[in-house]
Write a structure and sequence with these properties.
Bound molecules: adenosine-5'-diphosphate, zinc ion
CATH superfamily of the largest domain in chain A: ATPase, nucleotide binding domain
Enzyme class (chains A, B): transferase
Distance between the termini of chain A: 19 Å
Largest sheet of chain A: 5 strands, mixed
Strand content of chain A: 15-25%
Oligomer: homodimer
Structural class of chain A: alpha/beta
EC number (chains A, B): 2.7.1.4
Order of helices and strands of chain A: EEEHEHEHEEEHHHEHHEH
Protein name (chains A, B): Fructokinase
Pfam families (chains A, B): ROK (PF00480)
Radius of gyration of chain A: 19 Å
GO molecular function (chains A, B): ATP binding; fructokinase activity; metal ion binding
Number of strands of chain A: 10
Chain lengths: 291, 291
């Protein structure tokens, strides 16, 4: 039986999994993220159990080099994470087993899973926004993962400071100028001196968070005109948030530009916490036909 | 001799032109923009002079329907402009002469010309931002004009109000929340009670304008990672502006993300005021091969 592999390479843990031809998960494990070589040794040991893997999809925390023309294609780029900057992630895997790989970012993997989830729908362009320890987005435009001079870092767009918010910001580069600086989980915790998980539904924190995420939705909408914006990551687990985002988005847009109905447009993840792994499987499959 | 046609359909004037196979302009005229049928009658009368036009590229002021699956494909959509809302622009032309047309927005036409200008370069993705009576952008991603649920209206992205700026904004929908509201030519004139053309180089107006345009460049950069951002339209004619934008962009980004060298990245138009017409010719050519 032919198998596909998935490596969801996160900053704190790696999720490894194998599925059959129908994308049913047949095995799955989690290894903690250490330095590059140590972690990858565990990854390859895991996949050594399966000698019939046709292809592997890899969705890695960034920044990574996605440009096939680049000399450092497949490398992890400049990152403060010990033992990762300049590590040849994809090269390590190819050296272990020379099969087709699909190499992309973690958010691109999840975006692809959300896009494929609605594969028979009218959705051709989609933004997957994750709001967790960091804020990032995977973007699909007309069925293609968007990439350019590098991959997007769409958590670092400019926002307008909410007048009720006096927090100085959490982005090491842009402080309170960018979305990540004011809207990530750690920004919320730092601002309110309380974990986002523990903030009451009535706390003004949610109104402010919704304002920032609605601003982001407006900026993505005017630039990309996607068919859907999906909110993933830890913070949007809070059910109070999405209705507030839709309300604020409607106020901000003020009737400008047609969008799908907001209930279908600004939505929670369809694949839950499996989005990353599923995206890797789908991408592994497409790496096979490409090869 | 086979010819190509161009219709640059602006809100105040239409530029009509014809070129030969090598994209040399052989004739050109300008007609004022009246209502839809009146203006289009003049357009077809002009092109009646040439019986050997293979294809025409049309770059129209928006909003227009660019979705070939839509029942109103080729129409001008909701606009306050008298005699245009719901006008079947493309249908009128096809009814006149059934040749291939490339139908797109004015900014997409100019973006395509700027993209083609560097056709043999490394530029695969490009943003053409026009700052004039309105603010708008045409976006090329990996050699394709970006479009989704509708065409981008990337002049209406969220900006952060400059602390020195107390102007209430010029966008009828978003006031001072969006780029167009604070950075268009009329916004400058309204704020300073003086035409942008007449403001001295030393006026603080330029520092504020550069702040907003640098913010826009940061947002486009983090979402799209283009190879180039081109500044067109009336306001960037002022030579004081671009160096200020580059300086402010570097401050805002604070070393985050690789971009091309800023001298090659944030640039004035390469095609000057011919960008719109040239884009139409190139697109007309591609409509022929598509047909
Ligand atoms: N149910 C929840 N409600 C609000 N915030 C949450 C919730 N779950 C996680 N978070 C916040 O999300 C952040 C972690 O993000 P998460 O997406 O879970 O992981 P990571 O980004 O590290 O992969 C933390 O700051 C945490 O406070
Ligand atoms: N040289 C210039 N310097 C500064 N502003 C200019 C200049 N030329 C035109 N503008 C401003 O640009 C606006 C007109 O934009 P333009 O791009 O020329 O036309 P349109 O957008 O109508 O096609 C006006 O508000 C005008 O003040
Ligand atoms: Zn940032
Ligand atoms: Zn606006």
């Amino acid at each position: 039986m032919a198998l596909l592999g998935a490596i969801e390479a996160g900053g704190t843990k790696f999720i490894l999994a194998v599925c059959d031809e129908n994308f049913n998960i047949i095995d799955r494990t989690v290894v903690p993220t250490e330095d590059g070589p140590t972690t990858l040794a565990k990854v390859t040991t895991y996949f050594d159990q399966f000698d019939n893997i046709d292809a592997i999809g890899v969705a890695a925390f960034g920044p990574v080099d996605l440009n096939p023309q680049s000399k450092t294609y497949g490398y992890v780029l400049d990152t403060p994470k010990p033992g990762w900057a300049g590590f040849d992630f994809l090269g390590y895997l190819k050296n272990w087993r020379d099969i087709p790989y699909y190499w992309t970012t973690d958010v691109n993997g999840s975006a692809w899973a959300e896009y494929r989830h609605g594969a028979n729908s009218e959705v051709k362009s989609l933004v997957y926004l994750t709001v967790g320890t960091g804020v990032g987005a995977g973007i699909i435009v007309n069925g293609q993962i968007l990439s350019g001079f590098g991959h997007p870092e769409a958590g670092h767009i400019i926002i307008s400071k909410n007048p009720k918010d006096h927090y100085l910001g959490h982005c090491p580069f842009h402080h309170d100028r960018c979305l990540e600086g004011v809207a990530s989980g750690p920004a919320m915790e730092d601002r309110w001196q309380q974990s986002a998980k523990e903030l009451a539904d009535e706390h003004m924190a949610w109104e402010i968070e919704a304002d920032y995420l609605a601003q982001a939705a407006m900026t993505y909408t005017t630039i990309l005109r996607p068919d859907k914006i999906v909110f993933g990551g830890g913070v949007p687990h809070r059910e109070v948030l999405l209705p507030l985002i839709r309300k604020r988005f409607a106020e901000l847009m003020a009737g400008y530009l047609a969008t799908p109905d907001l209930e279908d447009y600004l939505v929670p993840v369809a694949n839950g916490d499996n989005a990353g792994i599923l995206g890797c499987f789908y991408l592994a499959k497409s790496a096979m036909t490409r090869a």
